[in-house]
Amino acid sequence: MPPPPDTCFLCGDASAGVAPCRECDGVVSVCADESHLAAHRPRGLGRCLPFAVVESADAGRFFIAANDIARGEIVVVDEAALVAPSMIPGLYPANLLL
C-alpha cells in the first residue's frame, strides 16, 4: 500500500510542487518542503532511505517499506531531541548537578 506517486511520501501533500525523487528513480515523491527531502535523503548518507509514511483509517499514520530492504540497511535516521550530561558523581562540578 505505497503512497500514490503524486503525493509527498512524508506529508501526503498532493499539490503541484510534488515531484518524484530523481535519486531513487521515483520510488517515492517529495513535496517542495526541503526538510522532507532531507528526511528522504539525509546528508552524508549518500542514498535515499527506503520508507514512506501512509495513513489508514484503522491504524493512523505509519511507516512502510518503499522498496526491498537489505539486511543491515539503514532505514531511518533521527537525531536526539535532548542530550543531558552524565550523572556520574565527581564527573562534573557540584553546581552543575542540581
- Binned, the helix content reads under 10%
List the uncertain runs. Answer: none
Dominant shape = elongated
| Secondary structure tally: strands | 4
Rg (C-alpha, Å): 19 Å
The description of the largest β-sheet is: 2 strands, antiparallel
Count of discrete domains: 1
Strand fraction: 15-25%
Q: Can you list the strand order of the major beta sheet? A: 1-2
Mean pLDDT: 81
Number of helices: 1
Explain this structure.
- This protein has one domain.
- The strands form two sheets. Strands 1-2 form a two-stranded antiparallel sheet. Strands 3-4 form a two-stranded antiparallel sheet.
- It has 98 residues and is mainly beta.
- It is 7% helix and 16% strand.
- The chain is built from one helix and four strands, in the order ββαββ.
Helix-strand blueprint:
Layout: E1 19-20, E2 29-30, H1 34-40, E3 51-56, E4 60-65
What's this, in brief?
With 98 residues, the protein is mainly beta. It has one helix at 34-40; strands at 19-20, 29-30, 51-56, 60-65.
What key phrases describe this protein's structure?
98 residues, mainly beta, two-stranded antiparallel ribbon
